[in-house]
Design goal:
By secondary structure, the protein is an alpha/beta fold. Helix content is 37%, strand content 22%. It contains six helices and nine strands; from the N terminus they run H-E-H-E-H-E-E-H-E-E-H-E-H-E-E. The strands form two sheets. It has a seven-stranded mixed β-sheet, sandwiched between helices. Strand 6 (138-139), helix 5 (147-159) and strand 7 form a beta-alpha-beta unit. Helix 1 runs parallel beside helix 2 (39-47) and helix 4 (112-125) crosses helix 6 (168-177). The relative contact order is 0.16.
Length: 200
């Protein structure tokens, strides 16, 4: 089956899963925002068999994600749904409420206004005490954490001036307004981080 493929997903899936296993141990229904190729979904779902992993992305990516999901054929991995942060978010399902959110390598390819909408949407969707794991490269205090991240940021902004590596100091007040408190900031391989937010 001809499926989209990201080498980065293969490289980072194991260290990310090591963070998610304890974080999502008591969760039942996780929403993945920006599932991309679908590789993370098919790797994480069997390792987190106690929960339902709901992949989502913009419409253009759904066919590729669908090929990965169809091949995996996992009982806790339903068909991916459309979610564009600029549009309507999925309606809450009282029978299967979302109680965790995960997103990887999305904040730096979104415009800042879209990052703001993502945080607001996550805050509105999650119940109190629920986690949001956001993986990717981040700067702090206006300073990149590595030369490679600075180079990556320049490349992103040259390609799309609205994108770029996001700074934690900018994210914090937006998340706070959405009812999300930063619980952990975990260093990951290749100068990435997993930011763990908790809905108040």
């Amino acid at each position: 089956m001809d499926k989209p493929y990201s080498p980065a997903c293969d490289e980072n899936k194991a260290p990310i899963l090591a963070v998610l296993v304890p974080l999502f141990a008591d969760r039942r229904h996780v929403l993945e925002i920006g599932a991309g190729t679908g590789q993370h979904a098919v790797h994480f779902a069997p390792a987190l068999a106690h929960l339902t992993w709901q992949a989502s992305d913009v419409a253009a990516h759904l066919p590729g994600i669908g090929r990965w999901l169809a091949e995996a054929d996992l009982p806790n991995l339903p068909a991916a749904i459309e979610l564009d942060v600029d549009g309507a978010w999925p309606e809450p399902d009282p029978a299967a409420p979302i109680d965790a959110v995960y997103s990887a390598n999305t904040a730096h390819i979104m415009a800042w206004t879209q990052v703001q909408r993502m945080l607001a949407g996550v805050g509105a969707l999650l119940p109190a005490g629920a986690p949001f794991a956001l993986y990717g490269p981040f700067s702090k205090g206006g300073q990149h954490t590595s030369r490679s991240n600075a180079d990556f940021d320049r490349m992103l902004r040259a390609r799309d001036p609205f994108s770029g590596v996001r700074d934690l100091d900018d994210l914090l007040p937006v998340a706070e307004a959405a009812g999300l408190a930063l619980e952990d900031d975990i260093a990951m391989p290749v100068n990435n981080r997993t930011l763990v937010w908790r809905k108040r």
